[in-house]
Amino acid sequence: MSKTITLYGHGPTANPVKVAIILEELGLPYEVKAPADIKAEPFISLNPNGRLPAIEDPNTGFNLFESGAIIEYLIRKYDTDAKLQYTTEPENFLTQSWLHFQMSGQGPYFGQLAWFKVFHKEQLPSAIERYGNEVKRVTGVIDAHLKKQKTKYLIGDKLTYADLAFVPWFNALGFILPEFDWKKETPEFAAWFEGLLSRQSVQTVLAKPEFQRQMKH
Ligand SMILES: N[C@@H](CCC(=O)N[C@@H](CS)C(=O)NCC(=O)O)C(=O)O
């Protein structure tokens, strides 16, 4: 029985939710904590970049930050039955490719759309248009890939941590781009995403009070 891992996160922000889904899938005990101030000590000793998530793992004594790196760590350390990964090449490397695409191609663009559409103090139509188009494009990349491969998941017919990593930001589509009819425009994506959304791990994490909007930190 492993000791409880601390996951730092608060509210519905995507990156801690992503890590929670992997913890849940692997059946690891964890608790979600909201740091008092993510830009100050003691949190910046966990993540010098002052952002969420970060984890403390008492089983190894390791403290880690950056959601993609945390996921790779959890998989390498704890996915001993290869539930969420391939043990064959090149599928194992392709899983990393998709995770890196999520980290660099999905997260930042979806995050910028949310920023310019919802939080920025001025309305800048050209910025909203640029990031809105990127969100649609990234969704279209997955749609076209699944259509071409005729597979259930991103890498063949096995669920991996890469599929799951995309879930939290896609779950924000209705919030950041409500006018995008993704069920109609990207049906292969829609079938894949709805399958992921229906997983018990995803349902459990999305329902957690720590990840709801009213949570204060
Ligand atoms: N690349 C980082 C991004 C981290 C990130 O931007 N986290 C957001 C929440 S999803 C955050 O902490 N925002 C608060 C802030 O920027 O001050 C990761 O994936 O861990």
What is the arithmetic mean of pLDDT?
96
Q: Which blocks of ≥5 consecutive residues have pLDDT under 50?
A: none
| Strand composition percent | 5-15%
The dominant shape is globular
Small ligands present: glutathione
Span between N and C termini? 31 Å
Structural class: alpha+beta
CATH class of the largest domain: Mainly Alpha
Main sheet record = 4 strands, mixed
Helix content: 40-55%
Q: What value does the Rg take, in angstroms?
A: 17 Å
Architecture of the largest domain, CATH level 2? Answer: Up-down Bundle
The total of helices stands at 11
Order of helices and strands: EHEHEEHHHHHHHHH
How many domains? The number is 2
SS elements, strand count: 4
Strand order of the largest sheet: 2-1-3-4
CATH fold assignment of the largest domain? Glutathione S-transferase Yfyf (Class Pi), Chain A, domain 2
